[in-house]
Design a protein that fits this description.
Largest sheet: none
Helix content: over 70%
Distance between the termini: 31 Å
Structural class: mainly alpha
Mean pLDDT: 78
Order of helices and strands: H
Number of strands: 0
Number of helices: 1
Radius of gyration: 10 Å
């Protein structure tokens, strides 16, 4: 599914940014 890739690409950077912010 293309949505899964979009979520992963959107969630991946979001998690990385959250980890850096913490």
């Amino acid at each position: 599914y293309p949505i899964l890739e979009t979520i992963q690409k959107y969630l991946w950077p979001r998690l990385c940014k959250l980890d850096q912010r913490t």
